[in-house]
Amino acid sequence: MSDIKPFRVVHYLNQFYAGKGGEAFANTSPYKIDGSVGPGRLLEQTSKGKLKIAGTVVCGDNYFVENSSAIKQIIELIKSYQPEAFIAGPAFLAGRYGEACVEICCAVKERLDIPVITGLAPEHPAVDRYRKDLPILRTGTTGADMKNSIPRMGEILFKLLQGIKLSSSEQNLIYKRGLKKNAILEKNAARRAVAMLITKHRGENWQSELPMPKNDLVTPAPAIKEKSFTLALITDGGLILKGNPERMPSGRSDRYCKINIDSWEKLTPEKVEVNHFGYDNRYVLADPNRLVPLDIIKTLEKRGDIRLHPVIYSTAGAATAIENAASFGRGIASELKKAGVQAVILTST
Amino acid sequence: MARELESAGIPVAHICTMINVSKSMGGNRLVPSRSVLHPTGDPDLTLSEEFKLRQKIVSNALQAIQTEIKEPTVFE
To answer: CA quadruple A20, A24, A26, A30: dihedral positive or negative?
Structure first.
């Protein structure tokens, strides 16, 4: 018999990892299941009796991002188990699921004041925004990494619960939180500063002791003043020509495509379809104007309000690396500038 | 994509559901969409209601493009 009683943990999962279903079930409202489910079972097994999942709280990915009350409902469900710790995901590179994991972790930390942990891939946009507030484990990009991530999350959560210091390899698995650590150096700050200045003056490699945070704000582009202007349409919702002649990927995209819409009045299921693994496509497949509002834009063009650029730029934004998306943006920007396009409407799923 | 286009001086109306995510990634002109599943439509509405909804979202987007802003702004 183990000498410690297992800690009571609540686990948060999306509809997919809870075994409810895929994108067709992404609108599922929050509910709870007593005990562990799916990845939670692996967590319990690998924790060797140190952690016990008292309950699993589940919410659909779309429900979470579309209902501001979701978080409140989820917190109530979590509270009902009176947990001593909380684990969310891991969500790897999943966009909506990862957002849910970090937001719920923050809320649990604030409201219940218990240790929390989640896991995300380095490319996930939430990492940079939440690394300071939460322990987030560095994971792979897909569920294939579950067998590595879950035991690590369990071990780290256990140490957080016990107040045990993390090993340096464990610290490296958590995204740097930007916390200051006191250290005693041989040379005082004045000597180090002068040494740094001399190194810089000589043109040698020098390194600041205070790395500046990256500023993510972008100065807004000036507004359009002309009454009539040229507009282009872009989407990351995976719009493609029927039959996907360009063989566009459904996610983890490395390129964008161009769809010529010059002679069309609107988008129709006969001409276009969707290839995107990140959402349930059926409503857009039935009427693609629900993704790119070409029908409305064409009406405005006829009235002379705008001139429409003859192609729609499209990619599938699911699990696409930020650097790739940025390079699509630069590529499209340079094409649009050449074509004299003045403004863009970008639709995202 | 939105941030690179705005950086290049092209105003972008970003129609999306996760407004805060767009904002933190450098989106400036933010227009709330109907849903992740149907940004500019709604299968639960009648065709004419849905068309009106889409007109409204597009008109918010055009408003965004034609408005001078200093910081990320939501148009709805």
So the answer is: negative
Asked if residue A199 belongs to a domain, the reply is no
Chain A from 153 to 212: CB within 8 A of any B CB:
none
Tell me: do A146 and A274 sit in the same domain: no
CB contact under 8 A, B41 and A287: yes
Task: Indicate yes or no: CB of A222 within 8 angstroms of CB of B9.
Answer: yes
pLDDT band at A1 (very low <50, low <70, confident <90, very high): very low
Tell me the residue type at A45. Answer: Q
Residues A293, B50: Cα–Cα separation, whole Å = 11
As for how many domains chain B has, the answer is 1
The alpha carbon of residue A323 is apart from the nearest alpha carbon of chain B, in Å, by 10
Q: Which of A173, A189, A211 is the last residue of a domain?
A: A173
* CATH number of the CATH domain containing A14: 3.40.50.2300
**How far apart are the two ends of chain B, measured CA to CA in Å?**
21
User: Chain B within 8 Å of A325 (Cβ-Cβ)?
Assistant: yes
pLDDT for the residue A184: 85
List, for residues A218-266, the tens digit of each pLDDT value. 889 999 999 899 999 999 999 999 999 999 999 999 999 999 999 999 9
Q: How many structural domains does chain A have?
A: 2
A149 touches chain B (CB under 8 A): no
CB pairs A-B closer than 8 Å = 189
- Whether residue B21 lies within 8 A of chain A, CB to CB, comes out as yes
ipTM over cut 0.85? yes
Residue A345 pLDDT level (bands cut at 50, 70, 90) = very high
Cβ B37–A125 below 8 Å, yes or no?
no
Residue A318 belongs to domain spanning: 229-347
3-state secondary structure A48-104: CCCEEEEEEEEECHHHHHHCCCHHHHHHHHHHCCCCCEEEEEEEECCHHHHHHHHHH
Do strands A51-59 and A31-34 pair parallel, antiparallel, or not at all (unpaired)?
Answer: antiparallel
CA of A36 to nearest chain B CA: how many angstroms apart? 29
Q: Rounded mean pLDDT of chain A? A: 93
Residues A308 and A238 in one domain: yes
pLDDT one-digit tens code per residue, A11-56: 999 999 999 999 999 999 999 999 999 999 999 999 999 999 999 9
pLDDT tens for residues A158-209? 999 999 988 888 888 999 877 666 778 899 999 999 999 999 999 998 888 8
Chain A interface includes B47 (CB < 8 A): no
